[in-house]
């Protein structure tokens, strides 16, 4: 895989530890129970129907639906869509078939041979109002695996100890199955809709290439234009069997790559020179590796830390409250950054050297040596400012920085005041046991940036309660999804969608 394409997208992984709420087991069976009515004396006994407890949501008990969705997830994990080449069309066809059985027409949006997205729509009225529509989006492709490091077949979708193992079980086929379930639940409910709900399965998210959402938007925007979207990127963070908080992604950092190029005089290795490009590159990379960009705070990140402070242990919470203060800010930033690489990256531009190349023979001093820097900018920051800081830091005329052409685009954040954000927050807080719901700016990139650039209020929420250990397996080895978390996530997602799109 070429280094320059690797940056585009990954789910935010890693998050941190906090306090307490309901155990997951207690939260999992949240769907409405049904129970028989008591019968009065003399009433006909044999035909008295069981009556469901009335619910404000048109979504009833989702237990059977989640089981069905688990079957879809298993089928999709077994369909290998490792990108490259992706071959997402196989899953698009599978999804079309399931939708067809529900009486829902879908449309294949072809991008390149073997690669298609799939779109389907539940209409609210004869004339669509895209500005009100809700888009449920998830990607069908997955990142590759190092089979030697997996303890199970990554494409067998094996269930073991309450987990479903497999590449894509979390990122992002779990969400894809949950989106489909929420979409189908709404159709089956026959609820009257106050807005169109659109199901979209995308391709090429992991590489952001010619079959990605960027292409999809440029070719087919009218097919799924929407005012709101729900996508991956946020999380339901679980520790010690309890959901600690829900993070709803409303913004993301911007990925780009910069090549550090050292040039010197080539020559015979038996006669070393002072301008050896390898030596100069190594010195530059060492300096860059120790660099920490100044912290500053977007509205979302400020609100994230303020709310997290309330549930963090006293000492850390105390520092989170003063991150932005004049006198104690600097020390607070240090304490919080040291507690977590994620938190450090949320408050500043980051630079990670990721690839090195130099030399053609072991006895030749090369004329050139290169290092790739993978950079994640805060939205609103400019790369020029960062590069001039690095140039000053390196302070070596033999070193040049070259911005690569694959830079992501900064998108405006989604609003924290929108009615959809309010719905997600309200339903999620209630469904996961009155936990805090925080706005989140992810350090990794998702398809949502492209949607936000088209005026979509896009939010990220992978609705499955996951532990830090589970998150670390995403894009790694033995990726797995707890079945109980999937069941819970299907239920919550269906309720969020119905709450927002069904007329009361
Ligand atoms: Zn993903």
Tell me about this structure.
- This protein is of the alpha/beta class.
- The protein is built from 15 helices and 21 strands.
- A 6-stranded mixed β-sheet has the order 3-4-8-5-9-19, with helices on both faces.
- A hairpin with a 2-residue loop joins β3 and β4.
- α2 (63-78) crosses α15, α4 crosses α15 (483-501) and α12 (419-431) runs antiparallel to α15.
- The longest helix is centred in the C-terminal third of the chain and has 19 residues, at 483-501.
- The termini are far apart.
- The relative contact order is 0.21.
- Residues 1-55 have low confidence and may be disordered.
- Bound molecules: zinc ion.
- Zinc ion binds next to loops.
Broad shape: globular
What percentage of the residues does DSSP assign to strands (E)?
15-25%
Mean pLDDT: 90
Biggest sheet record: 6 strands, mixed
Total beta strands? 21
Helix share, percent: 25-40%
Unreliable sequence segments: 1-55
What is the SS-derived class? alpha/beta
Bound molecules: zinc ion
Strands side by side in the biggest sheet: 3-4-8-5-9-19
Quaternary state of the chains:
single chain
What is the gyration radius calculated from CA atoms? 25 Å
Treating each run of at least 4 consecutive H or I residues as one helix, how many helices? 15
């Amino acid at each position: 895989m070429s280094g320059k394409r690797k940056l585009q997208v990954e789910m935010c992984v890693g998050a941190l530890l906090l306090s307490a709420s309901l155990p997951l087991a207690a939260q999992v069976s949240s769907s409405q129970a049904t129970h028989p009515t008591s019968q009065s004396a003399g009433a006909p006994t044999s035909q008295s129907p069981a009556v469901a407890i009335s619910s404000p949501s048109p979504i009833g008990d989702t237990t059977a639906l989640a089981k069905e969705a688990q079957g879809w997830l298993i089928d999709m994990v077994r369909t290998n869509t490792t990108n490259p080449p992706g071959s997402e069309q196989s899953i698009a066809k599978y999804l079309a078939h399931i939708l067809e059985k529900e009486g829902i027409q879908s449309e294949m949006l072809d991008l390149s041979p073997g690669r298609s997205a799939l779109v389907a729509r539940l209409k609210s009225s004869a004339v669509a109002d895209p500005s009100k529509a809700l888009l449920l989006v998830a990607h069908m492709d997955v990142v590759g695996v190092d089979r030697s490091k997996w303890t199970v077949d990554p494409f067998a979708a094996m269930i073991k100890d309450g987990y479903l193992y497999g590449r894509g079980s979390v990122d992002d086929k779990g969400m894809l199955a949950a989106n489909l379930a929420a979409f189908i639940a709404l159709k089956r409910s026959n609820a009257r809709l106050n807005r169109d709900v659109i199901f979209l399965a995308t391709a090429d998210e992991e590489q952001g290439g010619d079959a990605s959402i960027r292409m999809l938007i440029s070719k087919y925007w009218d097919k799924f234009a929407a005012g709101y979207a729900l996508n991956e990127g946020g999380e339901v963070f679980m520790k010690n069997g309890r959901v600690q908080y829900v993070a709803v992604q409303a913004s993301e950092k911007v990925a780009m790559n910069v090549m550090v190029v050292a040039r010197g005089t080539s020559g015979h290795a038996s006669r070393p020179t002072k301008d050896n490009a390898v030596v100069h590159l190594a010195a530059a990379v060492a300096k860059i590796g120790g660099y920490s960009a100044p912290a500053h705070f977007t509205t979302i990140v400020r609100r994230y830390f303020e709310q997290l402070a309330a549930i963090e242990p006293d000492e850390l919470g105390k520092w989170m409250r003063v991150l932005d203060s004049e006198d104690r800010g600097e020390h607070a930033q240090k304490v919080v950054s040291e507690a977590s690489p994620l938190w450090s990256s949320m408050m500043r531009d980051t630079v990670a050297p990721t690839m090195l190349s130099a030399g053609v023979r072991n006895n030749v001093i090369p004329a050139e040596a290169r290092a790739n820097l993978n950079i994640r900018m805060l939205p609103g920051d400019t790369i020029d400012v960062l590069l001039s800081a690095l140039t000053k830091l390196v302070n070596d005329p033999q070193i040049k920085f070259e911005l690569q052409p694959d830079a992501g685009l900064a998108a405006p954040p989604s609003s924290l005041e929108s009615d959809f954000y309010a719905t997600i927050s309200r339903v999620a807080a209630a469904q996961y046991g009155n936990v805090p719901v925080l706005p989140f700016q992810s350090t990794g990139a998702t398809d949502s940036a492209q949607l936000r650039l088209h005026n979509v209020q896009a939010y990220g929420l992978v609705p499955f309660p996951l532990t830090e250990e589970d998150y670390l397996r995403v894009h790694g080895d033995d990726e797995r999804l707890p079945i109980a978390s999937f069941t819970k996530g299907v239920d919550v997602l269906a309720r969020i969608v119905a709450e927002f799109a069904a007329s009361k």
